[in-house]
Amino acid sequence: MALQIHQLGRDELCCFICKDLMKDPVTIACGYSYCKSCISRRWDGEKQAKIYSCPHCRQTFEPRPALVISTVLANLVEEEKKKTEPQAGPSYHRDAGPGEVGCSPTRRKRKSLKSNLQPHDEVPFKKTKLIEASKLHEMSEKQNELAVSRQNIQQRIHYEEKIVEVLLPEVEAINLSADEAVRECTELVKLIEQRSSDVTQKIKSRQKYEVSRVKDIQEMLQKDISDLRRKDTELEKLSQTDDQIKFLQAYRSLSNLRDPEKPFRVKIGPVRYFKGVTAAVSEARGKVLESFDKEWMKISEKVPEVYVKLLPDPQTKADISQYTGPKVLLKLDPNTASMQIQLSEDNRKATKVKKQHSYDPHVDRFMARSQVLCGKGLTNRCYWEVEVSGFGVSVAVAYRDVPRTGQESAFGDNDKSWALELSKTICNFKHNGEKKAIPVSVLQSSRIGVFLDQKAGVLFFYSVSETITLLHRVHTTFKRPLYAGLGVHCYGASATFRDI
């Protein structure tokens, strides 16, 4: 690899945008290099969309990457300029005889130096260039790894900030629900002050405990976010280092960048908390005089544990199998399949074909996009895998009423679907028309795993081989039942639900 970089031709040292030798060359995360001014002007034009792309491979980046001048590439460009600069024309001696071309002193000196240069004098120069090229290649690879690590950290920060937002109203909801229950108990106190004081004390104790637990989780997440921001700042500073030796030495001292500590997932149940107590007290108020002991037991038993449980994200196949429960068998609904989709393998495989099928008209059929939904809704917590083949495949989850016509009907282009978009050189997550680029290098195979926990509002996409690699996580609130979906947008492309 080092030898190939050393032998770069003039074309490889030219900017893809301006077609001239690069000026202040910079290498971006996907590995392609450009003039710093050329790529800066192009990205200035993409500033409004806030998604920046490589003009060569079309890979997208968000946020805008920092541009660091490659010293080694700049040196190679300068050497190429020297090789291609026009040489001064030959000078002739006035005393040269007829038919003889006399050499100028400068030409004779150059010829003398060339004749005295032995092959072994060139070895140190070539060796130095090979070492520089090798370092350039290694630095480019490590910069790509840094970009992936920073993207994972930024996703983690965004995810945990969402959790903090969800937890903020939890304390207020717990307090409001508990206060309402206490007020109902106060009415009962008028009749049976001694017994109702016991219930009040129990509610207050549980309220204090649960509020304290939620606040502890908030503080832990805020600390984790601060640590992640500090680490991201350090990585950004390192990624902008021009000195290759300093960069590589600092890089080797870093801990594993791809596997930060496992993030947290907060499981939040229905907002009910002490409502059971409130209902029980209201019911008991009218009956307490005739069946005091019986109703008192009902009141005491209704004080619940608030369901705020901290669970780690599934990181392995064993974790996923522990969470999923019964096996999920997904089958595609022919009534939703586009006219250019052929279903096979017991309606578990979708393939795009050129000849349109003569499916019966149906209100659920996708008319604008080559897509199809499953017939049955997904269970609360489930996991499934999809084998993809060809270009332009989408693996998605969607509400049943996702649009069937128009440009916004594509999975991920509306607020009713979440999709992973796959191609040979592209991997994107899409929702509500917004796109998030995922480095293609993290894809381990052609199999995609999907983990869904509807009540917790969690959706994960994985690349699956012998191990699993997290591609993207979603934390939101799912308001209605969800359905698995497949999109096949290029002829010959297919997607198949596979047994786990």
How would you characterize this protein structure?
The chain is an alpha+beta fold and 500 residues long. Helix content is 39%, strand content 19%. The protein has ten helices and 19 strands. The strands form five sheets. It has a seven-stranded antiparallel beta sheet with strand order 7-8-19-10-15-16-17. It is globular.
What are the main properties of this structure?
6-stranded antiparallel sheet; alpha+beta; 500 residues; globular; 7-stranded antiparallel sheet
Name the overall outline: globular
Tell how many strands the DSSP assignment holds.
19
Between the first and last Cα atoms, what is the distance in angstroms?
39 Å
Which stretches of 5+ consecutive residues score pLDDT under 50? Answer: 1-7, 88-121, 305-310
Strand order of the largest sheet: 7-8-19-10-15-16-17
Mean pLDDT: 79
Q: Give the structural class.
A: alpha+beta
**SSE order, one letter for each helix or strand:** HEEHEEHHHHHEHHEHEEEEEEEEEEEEE
Number of helices: 10
Helix percent band: 25-40%
* Cα radius of gyration in angstroms: 33 Å
Largest sheet: 7 strands, antiparallel
Indicate the proportion of strand residues. Answer: 15-25%
